[in-house]
Specification:
8 helices, seven-stranded mixed sheet, alpha/beta, binds zinc ion, binds S-adenosylmethionine, 283 residues
């Protein structure tokens, strides 16, 4: 069952900011109040991938890979982080803790949530945020659901695409994106979407794998890309430039091995600037 306070924050991913309501049919679903599309709720997880989108061909590959590795992800990810990316897995927990703390009584969005590996350890019953996790991979979400069963508070999982999030504009107080951005087919579009979902003075943080940090990591990232798994990954500065182009202010970063941790804010200064055309770049 979807909690009313969560439902209030959701919208149709195809019709900007149009609310969805619980359907009255035999099978549970959410219905868009504008286009009338039905989003099925499967085992408590609404499937809110926009129906009318022409997905980027690379996104099939990324989704398939995520479904395949979901079973071993909890074991392989920390090992790779230590051995290949040269970043202690504990750093993710630290960053997660900070990001969740910033949500206070607002919405905390984890996008992508994966198997919930980083989120689960920091959720305690003294947090009063509404916690939502989105991911495109069913297998990742089902693993996360199992992991979250024993948590003291609810985490609402949603199947969604990070570049068309089913969240109303300004609904999210703190958005965390750990190791997702480097795998998204159109990072600039995703960053704009993250920005849209944040409330005024909301926080954005996360991490991404970047090149030019260690030879071993570069060798792996090059192979990933050669097999079409990830789009082009460049230096931390490149990603920072993309974040600034998406209007984030107070952008900071630090790198640990091949992992870049970043943070930014949606501030007054950015909101008062003239809007850029969707594909324009600030320099
Ligand atoms: C490396 S995992 C990171 C998961 C989690 N944040 C963590 O740190 O453990 C990348 C995740 O991104 C998800 N993903 C890839 N492309 C996506 C998209 N366009 N929209 C939503 N999720 C996506 C994959 O399904 C996968 O679960
Ligand atoms: Zn709609």
């Amino acid at each position: 069952m979807i909690q009313p306070e969560v439902l209030d924050k959701l919208c149709c991913p195809s019709c900007a900011d149009t609310p969805v309501t619980l359907g009255s049919g035999r099978r549970p679903d959410l219905v868009c109040q504008d286009c009338g599309h039905h989003y099925p709720i499967v085992e408590g997880i609404p499937d809110m991938v926009a129906p009318d989108r022409q997905p980027h061909p690379a996104s099939y590959r990324t989704e398939t890979l995520a479904n395949v590795i979901a079973g071993v992800y909890d074991f392989v990810a920390p090992l790779m982080s230590m051995a290949i990316w040269r970043c202690s897995p504990l750093r993710y927990i630290d960053h997660e803790n900070r990001a969740l703390g910033r949500a206070r009584s607002g919405v905390y969005l984890e996008a992508p949530v994966g198997t919930g590996l980083a989120l689960a350890p920091v959720v305690t019953d003294d947090h009063d945020a509404i916690i939502i996790g989105v991911d495109k991979s069913w297998n990742m979400l089902l693993k996360a659901q199992k992991r979250f069963e024993n948590l003291p508070v609810d985490v609402q999982l949603i199947r969604a695409d990070c570049d068309h999030l089913p969240l109303k504009s300004g609904a999210v107080r703190s958005l965390q994106s750990l190791n997702g951005l480097h795998g998204f087919s159109d990072r600039a579009a995703t960053l704009r979407e993250f920005y849209r979902c944040l409330e005024d003075d909301g926080f954005f943080s996360g991490s991404a794998l970047v090149r030019a940090q260690t030879d071993v990591a570069d060798a792996f990232l090059e192979r990933y890309e050669r097999y079409g798994i990830y789009p082009m990954l460049r230096s931390p500065e490149f990603l920072l430039q993309e974040m600034r182009s998406s209007d984030f202010e107070q952008v900071h970063f630090e790198t640990h091995g091949a992992v870049m941790f970043f943070s930014g804010e949606k501030t007054d200064e950015a909101r008062s600037r003239p809007q850029l055309e969707p594909n324009a770049r600030a320099v």
